[in-house]
User: Which sequence fits this backbone?
């Protein structure tokens, strides 16, 4: 099984877009990417906009190789309303009418209407499917973060290689997981490799230290119970101090970011937005290296 993170906070944008290849079966998960529109009171820096353009190009490119595309929920960093991405594919989406908040319901219904004429669109919640090379299973709705947080629910995807039994679980925005229900589900899936959003430490003052600590403890429990390796990214990597704040997770030797999994250096753009703008302004006022007015000939 080949697992390729396409876009993520550690790669410069808000995303968990991932391509999985098992034999001749290609699966694209969470085909979206976005930028936080206000961080440190600043809009996205030019480097972030450039990274977003590249991420969207990667997602569109890999979509042409996918037989199945999965949309875990309707936050704009996890899906694009672009029929070309989903054209002629089997598409699993979270139910836009059940266990969902109002803003995602509106986006979900609009997305459904936009892409349905172009693909085989199906509700994902609890669905199973057998490809020649892979078994694919969607979870029931799991809480987006802590239970009752108001952020709605997400669908996790388990992909099992039929040849060697290797299991990859993509758990999207479970944030830790902060929910005991999501934790129990992920332990029961027995992943060999788990990709999930880490605790939102950059919002710790807002969500509370208890929620962050619970997410850390729950992920430690999953690692202990299953022995899985973990790709931890997304919300956790919006925090420039994530390495220190999540030290107990990294000390296990089981946890890496999406960039780390790919063998790349982390490129935390949103977390460094204030620094990026400072550098851009310094560049703008830097004296020209020219030697006076050009001569005309």
Assistant:
């Amino acid at each position: 099984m080949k697992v390729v993170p396409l876009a993520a906070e550690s790669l410069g944008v808000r995303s968990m877009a991932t391509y999985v290849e098992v034999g001749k079966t290609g699966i694209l998960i969470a085909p979206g990417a976005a930028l936080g529109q206000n961080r440190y009171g600043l809009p996205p820096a030019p480097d972030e906009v450039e990274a977003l353009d590249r991420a969207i190009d990667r997602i569109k490119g890999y979509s042409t190789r996918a037989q199945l595309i999965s949309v875990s929920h309707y936050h704009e960093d996890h899906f694009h309303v672009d029929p070309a991405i989903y054209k002629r594919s089997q598409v699993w989406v979270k139910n836009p009418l059940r266990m969902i908040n109002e803003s995602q319901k509106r986006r979900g219904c609009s997305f459904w209407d936009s892409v349905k004429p172009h693909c085989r669109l199906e509700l994902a919640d609890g669905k199973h499917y057998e490809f020649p090379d892979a078994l694919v299973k969607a979870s029931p709705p799991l809480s987006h973060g802590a239970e009752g947080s108001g952020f709605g629910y997400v669908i996790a995807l388990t992909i099992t290689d039929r040849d060697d039994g290797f299991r990859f679980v993509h758990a999207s925005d479970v944030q830790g997981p902060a929910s005991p229900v999501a934790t129990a589900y992920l332990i029961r899936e027995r992943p060999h490799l788990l990709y999930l959003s880490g605790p939102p430490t950059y919002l710790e003052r807002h969500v509370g230290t208890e929620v962050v600590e619970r997410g850390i403890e729950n992920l430690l429990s999953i690692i202990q119970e299953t022995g899985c390796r973990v790709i931890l990214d997304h919300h956790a990597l919006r925090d420039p101090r994530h390495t220190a704040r999540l030290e107990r997770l990294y000390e296990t030797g089981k946890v890496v970011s999406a960039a780390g999994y790919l063998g790349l250096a982390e490129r935390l753009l949103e977390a460094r937005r204030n620094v990026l703008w400072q550098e851009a302004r310094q560049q703008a006022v830097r004296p020209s290296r020219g030697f006076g007015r050009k001569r005309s000939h």
The chain has a mean pLDDT of 95. The CA atoms of residues 145 and 174 lie 5 Å apart. The longest helix spans residues 46-63.
